[in-house]
Amino acid sequence: VAVTRLILPDSTSRVGGAINSVAVLPLENLSGDAGQDYFADGMTEALITDIAKIRSLRVISRTSAMKYRHTQTTIREIAGELDVDAIVAGTVLRAGDRVRVTAQLIDAATDKHLWYVSYELALQDVLSVQREVARAVASAVRIELTPEEEGALAAAGPVNTEAHEAFLKGRYHWNRRTRDDLRKSVGYFEQAIAIDPEYALAHAGLAEAYVVLGDWGFTAAKDAYPKAETIARRALEIDENLAEAYTVLGAVAYEYDWDWREAERRFQRAITLNTNYETAHQWYAEFLAAMGRFDEAFAQNEKARDVDPLSLIVSSSRAWILMYARDYDAAIEQSLQTLEMDADFQHALMVLMWSYDLKGMPVEYADAMIRLLIVCGAPTDAIAELSRVVEESGINGAREWFATTGIQFIGGVYNYPFHQAEIYAELGRADDAMAHLEKLYEARAHYVARIGVAPFFDPLRSDPRFIDLMRRIEMDDQRRL
Q1: Are 445 and 417 in contact (CB under 8 A)?
Q2: pLDDT digits (tens, 9 = 90+) for 41-72
Q3: Angstrom distance (rounded) from CA 469 to CA 195
Q4: Which of 20, 22, 116, 152 has the greatest number of beta carbons closer than 10 A?
Q5: CA 113 to CA 104: how far, in whole Å?
Q6: For residues 125 and 146, is the Cβ–Cβ distance under 8 A?
Q7: pLDDT class for 479, splitting at 50, 70, 90?
Q8: Is 259 exposed, middle or buried (0-12, 13-18, 19+ CB in 10 A)?
Q9: CA-CA distances (angstroms) from residue 350 to 41, 55, 97, 320, 373?
Q10: Stated pTM of the model
């Protein structure tokens, strides 16, 4: 490995005091080949992951950092938007089996370069370089690593280059979150594991992919979550300190096993291992909301936003928690803020639509439903049919139409019964609502874990069948933890 390093003599002096937070901007792909973007993105994510192991630093997540790819925004402006003290920026140039990586640490207050390094190395050595950069950042900002952090950043052995490439492609598609991309990510993670069965991160990535496939209703729960758990446990056999694996196990315990105490223990372990892992905070917040512990849920969501301030799903998840806490005005406002970042974000449109309905705003509810269907690619004749139904049958007609017809356009077929149960409960059709909730129970769909606080089911709470369902999932008192 050829290394060029420059650390300025006054590298730790800065106007604003100590550096407590950093953002890693997307590494620039210098190859001139857009097909190599996945490699630069993967290097960026790996750097973020390793630097995030330094617990005394707040490290902005990949989701927010990637918003600044090819940006003309200045370092100071980016730092201000992300509320960080310093920026890590760099480049990647891959040629065959050789890689050149540069990285620099820039003080956001002064635009001064505190530290610079350039590596030229064999492709199989990239993991060791990523961890060396993390150590160098800690040194430059005068953070003394704990023994546990030193262990986490211990020099990595050579990585199988083919397995690593497959892993990077898997992460690239996983982060895109569409059904087709998630399934592609599964294929790439499996390819990485086939090449290198001891590649812990590939196992963790595959487990996360199955959780999201189950969460979003793209795969049946009984297929998705047991696979996720088995794979996450294998990842921990290889590396017992993977926060991602514990987060997966927390999600499985919460969404599939309905083991509330074990879910909390696993989420807390993940956060202990990596306090900068925003997904652990986000999923833990949603778990706490499902338990009716809303103050704690908001606190965890805030921690997720601290490390991922531009995340659409974290922002929309906050709106979901507000809706379940029955603060419909705040849920509507939060959903609209999310949609300002991305007007087509489906999750936010769903929460907005339901919040308008619960608030008793039928015109806005129908308008939001139309927007959702358009974003989901519903045909124009379906949109026209909905408009006709609203005009002829009012808002109850719209609810009925969505439960029977509109639902097919929003994707996530395994989550349909939950949304249908919500509508039937609101329409006073308790038999139909309970029939769909029983379907969810039999399928072990993750939405069952939310019925204890879901406001649409308030009309059913005195129904003996609903009480029995709550007892069967041991949520007859969801605030007991």
Answers
A1: yes
A2: 888 888 888 888 888 899 999 889 988 988 88
A3: 45
A4: 22
A5: 7
A6: no
A7: very low
A8: middle
A9: 30, 35, 46, 9, 10
A10: 0.86
